[in-house]
Amino acid sequence: MTALSTAGLAAQDAPADTGVPGPEQDPYIWLEEARSPEALEWVAKENERTLAAFEADPRYAQLKAEALAIFDSEDRIPFVSFRPDGLYNFWQDKANPKGLLRRTTLESYRTAKPEWEIVLDVDALAKAEGKEWVYQGMTCLPPALTKCMVALSDGGEDATIMREFDTTTKQFVAGGFVLDTKSQGGVQWIDADTLLVGRGFGEGTLTESEYPFTSRVWKRGTAIADAPDIFRGEASDVWAGATLLRDNKGTIHARTAYRGVSFHESINYVEHNGTWLELDIPKKAGLFGIVDGHILLSTDVDWTTDGQTFPADSLIAVDLEEWKANPNGAKKTLVWAPGERQTKQGGAVTGNALFVTLLDNVVGKVLEFNFDGGKWVSKEVPLPDNATLGIAASSDETDQIMYTVSDFLNPTTLYYTDGSTPPAVLKTSPAYFDPAGMDVEQHEATSKDGTKIPYFIVKPKGMALDGTMATLLTGYGGFQVPRLPGYLGSTGKLWVEKGGAYVLANLRGGGEFGPNWHQTAIRENKQRTWDDFIAVGEDLVKRGFTSPEHLGIQGGSQGGLLVGTFFTQRPDLLNAAIVQIPLFDMLRYHLIGRGASWIGEYGDPRIPEQRAWIEGYSPYQKIVAGVDYPAPFLWASTADDRTHPAHARKGAAKLKALGQPYYYFEDTTGGHSGGVDNDQRAKLQALQFIYLMQRLMAPVTGG
């Protein structure tokens, strides 16, 4: 079954004895077919109504122009990656809406106006081929990184085609490797004439979640259909495949493989003595990288092995050669373990060191690790305090590395070092809004079970606590993904500068405080995430920051589900709700888009016990007659093959049938993140902030 299920197929996949709603229980299943004429006609009518309501507002044109000026800004930081032939950047602006892949030198990049050499013009390619190509990145053969496979999607889908490209000639390779059937998955280069391919190869090669579960070795000059499988998972896996264990010099040390038995759990393997050996590590653990002759592992659960216990979120090292000789018997050594309210975020390996970004009570730090004198030593990288830190780029060959430093009110700053001196400012993003008179506070709300939930509020200094402030509350709370303070950019310009307050909640289910913060609010405990978000809303009202008349919420994807649960469980606490590219019908989510992959987060509605968890909050089913909902604004993307527009469509259709006020908009070109070019992104921003202004800043006049 493809991601764009027909209503008939969907009905067949939900037999009555599973308890999953079918056409007899759900009159809007026909909206699950993304591009049926009937569904697209419905979308067109909804878009026309919503655009008429928002574009006619005298503030709309200004908001869109302000957002577009930010997105098209020529002096925004052009973030780069290090490659042997230069610094690479992907750039979109008014003249190049689909984007340019380009490169420059470090010397030129240091200047205010670098000189760029165009490597690939996606606009020109799309025009020549009559496609809505969206550049989705490239995978290149190390160490030279000139021989690449470029991924392109048509209109922003997750699924891509792939073509061989030479960055030296700046041309697609005539007669080169081509994967012209759209699929999830990707490739890795084994050598100049061999690819390791993990994609859909036709019938019987996709999981129930519609991800690949086989991997093949493909030799140049042969057909992909004739390439032999080297690893095969199970159709019941979320995803599965083989990969290459490479160091930062490009040397392949082993072939490894994985079977994602749930979104958060994998069985890992290594090719050893000609067979696939299952690694004796937890299902919530995996390989982190190679540094200083050691392979590093990371675990999301406490791991007791060889007479010692490694705490969740720690880094563990094993001598690489010892591991290759005896993968399950090699000695393990602790590299790093988190302190209270600490968690690692990501890492990068340069020519000689490992760098790991951490959160320490939602404040960023970066540690540098080296194996020195027979032991692991670390030191903190000197970067600004009380900010969100990230690794923007790192070199495999040298010790060059770039960091981002950001907070709500100050533009993002890019720091650089070659390893011989402390990081120094290289570039600073322009200010997109005036922060004068604004301040940031951090508070805690008490959730239903007594857990303290931190949140940030950006507001006017000295604001009267009289409940009149128009306030936008956002959050995510899922998949161990953190929401962190970062420069507000267009939100600062279109909302905070216009007199609104902005709130970011750090909810359980996210990754702000490590794996346990996530795992305590999944599956049977997912309601805790929704309780946390509601608790923050209640706390904002209790403190006098705002009132239900002036409180709005916003979230996308899992965050769209978050917003849906809030406005269906506590409609009395809100006056606006933006439901972006959401999950919404949680009793059929496993049949829509790639929903089956998220059963590890939410549970399986086909199993009665688990369906009971989900029925308690599924927003689509919780929309009922006789309740005054806060005229939600739902929006989605036709090309979103991940969460799928059916969720938002069906929510809007049900609200309409009940005579409830609502708004619906569907971007007909963007993928899971919405607009694929800056003009469409600006339009989406303006529509949402006009909605918020009409609901929260102006007198309420109804839907």
TrEMBL record:
Enzyme Commission identifier(s): 3.4.21.26
Gene3D superfamilies given in the database record: alpha/beta hydrolase, Prolyl oligopeptidase, N-terminal domain
Annotated region described as Disordered, given as residue ranges: 1-23
GO CC annotations on file: cytosol
GO MF terms, alphabetically ordered: oligopeptidase activity; serine-type endopeptidase activity
Domain Peptidase S9 prolyl oligopeptidase catalytic: 493-692
This protein's UniProt keywords: Hydrolase, Protease, Serine protease
GO BP terms in the entry: proteolysis
Domain Peptidase S9A N-terminal: 25-422
Keyword Ribonucleoprotein: no
Cited PANTHER family: PROLYL ENDOPEPTIDASE (PTHR42881:SF13)
Protein name listed in UniProt: Prolyl oligopeptidase
